[in-house]
C-alpha cells in the first residue's frame, strides 16, 4: 500500500505509523464527563468503506496526515496534513485492474 504524503510524495506504508480513527472529537481537557472521555478513548468505528484515519509519516517528514482509506480495498482517496496546509489526491487505479 502506498500513501502519498503531501510533502514527500508516494511512499510505502512501512514508513507510516497508524495514529487512530480520525473521526473522534476530543472532549474539553477540563471536562470531567467520564462518559465522553470513555467514548473518546475506547469507542471506534469499524466501517466497511471509506474511513477517516490519522497516520504519521514517522519514517519521513514526521507530519501527521488525515487519510481517507477504503477499508475494503485499501484504496486511498485523499491525504492531507492534519493541520490543513496541503492536500494530495493519489491517482486512482485504472478501472478493471486490481
Ligand atoms: Zn512525508
TrEMBL record:
InterPro entries: SoxD (IPR006279), SoxD_sf (IPR038561). Gene3D superfamilies: Folate-binding superfamily. Pfam families: SoxD. This is Sarcosine oxidase subunit delta.
Amino acid at each position: 500500500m502506498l500513501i502519498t504524503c503531501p510533502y514527500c510524495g508516494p511512499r510505502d506504508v512501512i514508513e507510516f505509523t497508524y495514529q487512530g480513527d480520525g473521526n473522534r472529537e476530543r472532549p474539553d481537557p477540563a471536562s470531567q464527563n467520564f462518559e465522553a472521555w470513555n467514548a473518546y478513548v475506547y469507542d471506534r468505528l469499524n466501517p466497511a468503506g471509506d474511513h477517516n484515519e490519522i497516520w504519521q509519516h514517522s519514517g519521513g517528514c514526521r507530519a501527521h496526515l488525515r487519510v481517507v482509506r477504503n477499508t475494503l480495498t485499501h484504496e486511498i482517496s485523499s491525504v492531507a496534513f492534519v493541520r490543513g496546509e496541503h492536500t494530495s489526491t493519489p491517482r486512482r487505479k485504472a478501472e478493471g485492474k486490481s
